[in-house]
């Protein structure tokens, strides 16, 4: 074909890709585009430039200009900052994909696995001003013409995923749908044909991604991450039941006139909620309404009114049982949410027909926000047979958002940038403890971030945290304060058998001590105190110890060992007392330090 028709064809294929409106459709259009234009999507470092060269009509120029501007940020060192670093991202939600984009811009090889093959969440995310600016910079308007038109500051989850998938693919990210992460596979001791680095066990098992070896793994798999090693903090508040509802938006003039209800504004409007209760019996703590692809409502309802209106059938103490499907009258729930939506919009929406959800049902759902979770730490490092693996969490896996306040995507993106910054440091060869200490310092800011207290200079935003957090102290956690659980060298230098043997000899003859293992034998703290007493009797008055005082004995040992021998505690006395037995991995780690410090001493 002639060069002119080739150009026209390329442009049309690209347009099909840009306009694709489903996840599968997008991946299909992309694969046709690559095939027809003879582009190799696996050649991640050259893909973007090859695509740009192949599709060069004026229509796409504006998109290339935007993406070039982003890619030329100094922090990426011309796509070479992380050359050779391989990353696996678990989950193709907004935060996994946003992280993928940053990592590929840094020059990493990035593979995203997503267990589903449809983007079906109608629910709508609130965007902070910086996220709008950020997404515009990635060409959001090109992919979704209605993106944040006028004063609108929200987007449906599926539109956001769709847009981010497209940007990711353009920039050379490899995306696999219908692929589920099961667990990490440690590198084998000897190099074999299948390779020698960290890999993942996935479903389906024969999938090529199971051969992918990586240096970084990112958990972006939503509320309950499947990655091991992260302790979760629970924020238990008062009972909070949220209801989301989506109604069909026919985009009529009448619908266009109805005013939205923004998240924060309404919480304080007592009069509204009193009237709602008087007129309808519906008792809410707040309500949000966004006009998007659907008419989207999210509200927090009081339990008593749900019981009174027959939505919840029986009253139970445990929320799980309370909201279990067989205790919810679906018809009553549909009416409840519709009535609240109708009242909230002053009966101005002409027809409130439910949109259809993923399961082909009217799109209404009830969620329990009584317990919210956050991971205690944002990252850790594993080491096995000389292979280090950086493990990080982003998005809901890191910090669960309370939907009615709409913090999920905004804080999720901040964490995506912070994580990319950490990967850059990792690739530059910073020491593991420095990396973890910096990441933890930055993570401490995240739960407090608001649109008001982050930098307003969006133009300057990059993955460098200093461009975003005005009061950043990136070294508030010092490397020596990093908890040893976060730098998990799976192969302790001492063989556990030898360690146990040594501990037994050291503690032999002490009253109340009988070391038979590296976990439960240490719970009451006496063995630890004995270990110290054997080295320096003057540090601990062993005979005064009380076997029952688990917290006290352990804390004493931890404090003395830290002060006198510089051995960092791995937990606290209180936690030792709270658990039925200490974590074996932690104990091995901790006792190895004693072994290293004292094995050559005469005692
Ligand atoms: P998610 O968007 O949850 O994405 C995680 C992805 O990982 C999913 O696509 C999932 O399929 C995939 N995944 C999970 N496990 C695996 C695995 N083992 N292997 C491979 N892939 C895996 N926020 C609001 O502000 N308002 C709302 O109304 C609202 N409604 C929501 C409704 C639902 C049903 C859910 C799940 C979330 C909702 N959220 C809502 C939260 C919001 O979607 C997230 O805050 C936002 O999408 C950013 O999350 P994320 O990317 O971290 O995770």
Automatic annotation (TrEMBL):
Organism lineage: Eukaryota, Metazoa, Chordata, Craniata, Vertebrata
Family: Belongs to the Mical family.
GO MF annotation list: actin binding; F-actin monooxygenase activity; FAD binding; metal ion binding
Catalyzed chemical reaction(s): L-methionyl-[F-actin] + NADPH + O2 + H(+) = L-methionyl-(R)-S-oxide-[F-actin] + NADP(+) + H2O
UniProt keyword terms in alphabetical order: Actin-binding, Coiled coil, Cytoplasm, Endosome, FAD, Flavoprotein, LIM domain, Metal-binding, Monooxygenase, NADP, Nucleus, Oxidoreductase, Phosphoprotein, Zinc
Full-sequence portion shown in this chain: 2 to 604 of 781
GO cellular component terms, A-Z: endosome; nucleus
Signal peptide as annotated in the record: none
EC number: 1.14.13.225
Subcellular location, record wording: Cytoplasm; Endosome; Nucleus
Identification of the protein by name: F-actin monooxygenase
Limits of the Calponin-homology (CH) domain: 493-596
Names of required cofactors: FAD
């Amino acid at each position: 074909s002639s060069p002119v028709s080739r150009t026209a064809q390329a442009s049309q294929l690209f347009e099909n890709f840009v306009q694709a409106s489903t996840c599968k459709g997008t991946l299909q259009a992309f694969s046709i585009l690559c095939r027809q234009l003879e582009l190799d999507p696996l050649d991640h470092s050259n893909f973007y430039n090859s695509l740009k060269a192949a599709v060069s009509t004026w229509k796409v120029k504006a998109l290339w200009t935007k993406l070039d501007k982003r890619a030329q940020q100094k922090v990426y060192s011309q796509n070479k900052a992380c050359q050779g670093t391989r990353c696996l991202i678990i989950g193709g939600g907004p935060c996994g994909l946003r992280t993928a984009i940053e990592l590929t811009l840094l020059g990493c090889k990035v593979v995203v696995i997503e267990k589903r093959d449809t983007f079906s969440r109608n629910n709508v995310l609130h965007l902070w001003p910086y996220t709008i600016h950020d997404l515009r910079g990635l060409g959001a308007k090109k992919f979704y013409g209605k993106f944040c038109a006028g004063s609108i500051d929200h987007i449906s989850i599926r539109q956001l995923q769709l847009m981010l998938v497209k940007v990711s693919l353009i920039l050379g990210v490899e995306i696999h749908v219908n692929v589920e992460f099961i667990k990490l596979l440690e590198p084998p001791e000897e190099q074999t044909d299948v390779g020698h680095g960290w890999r993942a066990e996935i479903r389906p098992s024969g999938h090529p991604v199971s051969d992918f070896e990586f240096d970084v793994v990112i958990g972006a798999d939503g509320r309950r991450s499947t990655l091991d090693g992260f302790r979760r903090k629970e924020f238990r508040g008062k009972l909070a039941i949220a209801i989301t509802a989506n109604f069909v938006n026919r985009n009529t003039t009448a619908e266009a006139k109805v005013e939205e209800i923004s998240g924060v504004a309404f919480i304080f409007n007592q009069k509204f909620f009193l009237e709602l209760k008087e007129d309808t019996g519906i008792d809410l703590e707040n309500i949000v309404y966004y006009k998007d692809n659907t008419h989207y409502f999210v509200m927090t309802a009081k339990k008593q009114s749900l019981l009174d209106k027959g939505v919840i059938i029986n009253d139970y103490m445990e929320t799980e049982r309370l909201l279990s499907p067989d205790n919810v009258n679906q018809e009553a729930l549909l009416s409840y949410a519709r009535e609240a939506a109708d009242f909230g919009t002053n009966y101005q929406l002409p027809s409130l027909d439910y949109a259809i959800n993923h399961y082909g049902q009217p799109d209404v759902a009830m969620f329990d926000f009584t317990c919210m979770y956050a991971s205690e730490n944002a990252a850790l490092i594993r080491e096995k047979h000389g292979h280090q693996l950086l493990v990080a969490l982003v998005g809901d896996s890191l910090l669960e958002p309370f939907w009615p306040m709409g913090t999920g995507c905004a804080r999720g993106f901040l964490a995506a940038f912070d994580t990319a910054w950490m990967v850059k440091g990792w690739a530059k060869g910073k020491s593991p403890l420095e990396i973890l200490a910096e990441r933890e310092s930055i993570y401490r800011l995240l739960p407090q971030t608001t649109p008001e207290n982050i930098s307003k200079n969006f133009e300057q935003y990059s993955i460098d945290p200093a461009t975003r957090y005005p009061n950043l102290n990136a070294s508030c956690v010092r490397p020596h304060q990093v908890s040893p659980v976060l730098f998990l060298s799976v192969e302790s230098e001492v063989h556990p058998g030898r360690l146990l043997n040594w501990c037994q000899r050291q503690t032999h003859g002490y009253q109340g001590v009988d070391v038979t293992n590296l976990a439960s034998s240490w719970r009451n703290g006496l063995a630890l105190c004995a270990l110290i007493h054997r080295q320096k009797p003057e540090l601990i008055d062993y005979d005064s110890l009380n076997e029952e005082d688990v917290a006290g004995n352990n804390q004493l040992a931890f404090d003395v060992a830290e002060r006198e021998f510089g051995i960092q505690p791995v937990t606290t006395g209180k936690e030792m007392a709270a658990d039925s037995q200490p974590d074996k991995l932690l104990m091995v780690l901790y006792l190895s330090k004693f072994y290293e410090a004292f094995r050559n001493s005469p005692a």
